[in-house]
Amino acid sequence: MVFRNTDLPTLFHHTDAVAIARQREAVAATRHQLLLLVLGAALGALSPSLRVGDFQPVGALGVLAYAGVLALGYRSSRRRAKSHWQLNRSAAEFIKSMCWRYAVHGAPFGSGASDADADAVFTARLEEGLRELAKVGWEDPRTTDESAAAADLITTPMRRLRAKAFSVRKETYVRDRVIEQRNWYHRRTEISRRATALWSASIALLTLFALFFATLRTFSVGDSLEATGVLSAAAAACLAWSEIRRHQPLIAAHSLVEEDLAAMHTAMETTVTDAQWPSAVYETERIVSPQHTDWLVRHRS
């Protein structure tokens, strides 16, 4: 049996879509602010020889660039895209994790509970977790979207997988959840490695050029103050972008999660019994939770 994201409830898909949209918005706003700051510095370094009376068009463009930074900052503070992105991502991953635990008899939805009891516990635990997220700002799409409100929290594929034998549930979970997550974390680690190398090289190159022009100015070889300022601003923007994207700490965090998943994968394939299965699934879902990754990032930074 195959169990994919398409088999998850409508509430997950709504929340996941909002998380993706808000992530793009938050990342784009930060990128544009940094670019406008560098552009403003570059325009300020240009010669003011181009004039129309007392008016300097280049200076006006610099004013617009800095005004754009302020406007984007104000809009971001009002939209709170980053906060909504993180809350909706937490909600989407929480829903996904609970659905997997229910479908494969993970704790607290083990084989000892009847279907009716498991359904009741699932709904109660899910709603309780979502209420906690709502307390810190998460907006439940069911309050504004009728399709999300009317959709079932337990889908037919979830019930079908739950009704399967232990061997089928284990095979499906290992293949479609554990291995899929291992591959995802491996891909993200490689992406972060390449991004770290790119931005580190960019910062080093820009700093070397700034050092070169500063050295020339030190020995009065040329007046390179403007070039040094622009290069410094560009290097600072690259550094800020690298820190915002958290590439370096994510490499360590994702590598550790991948190692833990590899260990769980081996255990599930070799030693985990039917009786141990609920707790093994629970532990696996804890490992892949965003909260666990954030904890690793903070302690590896």
Q: What is the number of strand segments? A: 0
**Which sequence of SSEs, written as H and E, runs from N to C?**
HHHHHHHHHHH
Summarize the biggest pleated sheet.
none
The helix-and-strand class reads: mainly alpha
The helicity comes to over 70%
How many alpha or pi helices? Answer: 11
The geometry reads as elongated
Q: Give the oligomeric state of the chains in this entry, treating copies of one chain as homo and distinct chains as hetero.
A: single chain
Radius of gyration over C-alpha positions, nearest whole angstrom? 26 Å
- Unreliable segments (pLDDT under 50, ≥5 consecutive)? none
Distance between the termini: 40 Å
Q: Could you give a quick summary of the protein structure above?
A:
With 301 residues, the chain is an all-alpha fold.
Report what the structure shows.
The chain has 2 domains: 164 residues, no CATH class; 137 residues, no CATH class. The protein contains 11 helices and no strands. The chain is elongated and about 85 Å long.
